[in-house]
Amino acid sequence: METFIQQILNGLVMGSMYALIALGYTMVYGVLNLINFAHGDVLMIGAMVGLTILHLLESAFPGLPGGVQLALAIVGAIPVTMLVNIVIERVAYRRLRNAPRLAPLITAIGVSILLKTFAMMIWGRSPLPFPQLLSSEPIMIGGAVISQTQVLLIVLAVVCMFALALLVEKTRIGRAMRAVAENPRVAGLMGVDSNRVIVTTFALGAALAAVAGVMWGANYASIQFETGTLPGMKAFCAAVLGGIGNIYGAMIGGIVLGIIESLGAGYIGDLTGGFLGSQYQDIFAFVVLILVLTVRPSGIMGERVADRA
Amino acid sequence: MALLTFDTAHKPRQSYASMAVLLVVMLIFPFVASQFGNSWVRIIDMALLYIMLALGLNIVVGFAGLLDLGYIAFFAVGAYLTGLLASPQFAALLESAVNYSPVLGDALVALFGESIRTEGIHLSVWFIVPLAGLVAALFGALLGAPTLKLRGDYLAIVTLGFGEIIRIFMNNLNDPINFTNGPQGINLIDPIRIFGVSLAGEAGSRATVFVGGFGIPSVNAYYFLFLLLCIVTIFMTSRLQHSRLGRAWVAIREDEIAAKAMGINTRNVKLLAFSMGASFGGVAGAMFAAFQGFVSPESFSLTESIAVLAMVVLGGIGHIPGVVMGGVLLAALPEVLRHVVEPAQQALFGKVVIEAEVLRQLLYGLAMVLIMLNRPAGLWPSPIKEDRPLAATDKDEKEEEAVA
Amino acid sequence: MNELILNIAGVNKRFGGLQALTEVGIKIAKGQIVGLIGPNGAGKTTFFNVITGLYQPDTGTFELDGKPYSPSAPHKVARAGIARTFQNIRLFGEMTALENVMVGRHVRTHQGVFGAIFRHKAARQEEAAIRARAQELLDFVGIGQFGNRTARYLSYGDQRRLEIARALATDPRLLALDEPAAGMNATEKLALRELLVKIKNAGITILLIEHDVKLMMGLCDRISVLEYGKLIAEGLPAEIQKNQAVIDAYLGGAH
Predict the structure, then answer these.
(1) Residue A202 backbone phi and psi in degrees, to 5
(2) Among A19, A235, A283, C128, which one is most buried in terms of CB atoms within 10 A?
């Protein structure tokens, strides 16, 4: 039973990470119908910038409490990732808004490669250690362990989701985002500056990626220029699972995927008679994606979209 | 591109002349390049394989318009199949199979003979290559089947997922039964033997192949084989393009609903696109395994899928000469960079400011972004079939869109 | 007297909360031109989409040329013998006009991978036949000289003709046209009318959705009228013109 709870907890932690990343994907897809392939790499940039800030704090203000350092790292990383995303949107994506699907996708892949290369040039190719900031004293829940960092991650994910949901539903800019997501042309006719909305969406997504990136470093103690790629893809699968374009969906999809991965890795050995083991963990996200798109493409929270001929 | 043209429909004489010129250049190349060592020919050998891949992917992405981000999986299937059936690997597999299930082990020995216990299976190239093509085609249909109702971005991510799944399997399928030997990959793969002559040269010949008294380096021998295969691939894909099937693919790409309404069974036609494209990948994979002598999961990652996709898209999507050009540029460029740029930086700055590897990634990313922004159809797209000035058409188009 | 080419009855189609079609049916005799009219949103295109397999009906019986057919998939419907055009022209924009029509021949031909690669005698002959027939059809609809032009660059009226030629290439028993005259001026409509009569004289039955009442009255042998997904009238053009329910529907009388 203990293992089971541990696996659920692990799944919750990983799922919160996916949820944070998925929120960024889902928002951008909502307004632009574009999978921002480079989103995972923005996360990596956030992590790298956060690490740099931590190093600066170490040398300039040694002895700061870990929590403060972490907060500053996040707060410092956010403007950088926002800037990166805004530049990307302006330079690479804006002109291709009405282009057939292939061009924006290839461009996004190109942007992803560029981000990784810049990170390689600035921070080198080897993995970089992320310092231990919060106490490593484990918290016991029903026989299973969870660290302070992990609890913080879950809390942050939930807070961000609610904050975003509040923004989208109650504020003017949120209404504008929903309008552009539904029908950009008509929204424009109603006086909504869709460029401003899209830039805002990208900026918000970047902020979430920064949070996710720094927390990734804090949780896994090591980051590298390739850190963002796989989690990014899995988070997209989570967004689809939850219902692409839906904020609650991103959260739910993230958590569910995290738990599936965790339980799956734990029990796959038993299920397949020893043929497959936990090293196959990474395939779950994609298997889930394929199943969702085959069986229920609108995802858990999504609405059915009719296809007019 | 005014000098070289391959538009056989409209400019037949010029096209065939261009092809002849190119062929002569290609035939002479290895003898010239050999003066500078083996490495240049080796680079082109790999480039030829990648061109085959790009041409295969061109069927899926270029003709049928299906975004496939996991194409390298078929390359992997062909390569690993060869690794399994033309190296000592099968012995290792057998050993693990016997451990797992003695019955299975005995059955395999009964099928293939006692020697496989120690030496593995060593089938000839004439058997393996068609088999690789067939098995890859089967995988193509399998991986394509769930994607038939998906569009654009979703199709891309699902195919990406499949590519990743295959890679993860290749990386881990060594336990309990050792199919792929995990991250270490499969070694000692047989080189290609044609009419008793091994293209890697006999032991002690320093990789020289002797054909009727003449000795040519092994890389040159492979060069001619791969060149032949490339030409065959170009021929086949070109014939497919200008046929009833090719038209059906383009119809699906242009408007799937209209294609269905005109009686095209889009499910089957799409599966055919995946299968045919995959089969070329499988054959190229078999060649790769034999040429390199070993395969490991590193050669079959998302990076490679993206590289092949870039060759198709940046070269000239759907346009065979463009795709070939894309293949040459993107496969040969990194090597050229390595040989030229680092020494140049050394000479200019006294040290290497940007490594060749980093520079290559940088150029890749920039190329993708810049070319999609400025020439989304690729550097060398299909010539427009138009017999009146284009000036008037943009305006007409917009008016039509407003009305329709 | 004339045998029925198309016999459809009892079609119901619901989209979520909207009942798009209620007990709609149609009977078309061989060699006729039958019109389907009605205010916007009446369900005309929806009905088209149902009978050609794009939408799945909730109920309905479908008979083509006396034999039941299942409108489960568009390509099967095309194979059975119904070809259609679309309200918003759906050509294969990047192909030439000739190639567009050649695609129409797909359903009646069968060369596959082997024929494509090896081009043996049978394959070459089939390909030549496809090309010849396509050119014939382009000539038939009046755009024979534009065979090599990319479809995207044809004029609007020529694109409409091309779509008809492509549909004819499938050797249909019934040609279903969705607003073929939309966006045309008077001269173009006259030319279209002539073309449709020419097609009728070639022995092909036509089902036509249109808004131009004058065009319909002069062209159609019978007319059905839809409103809010229900059939409100059916008969000779002269009868339809005087039908009170039809007049109300168009002029919003009783609402």
Answers:
(1) -60, -40
(2) A19
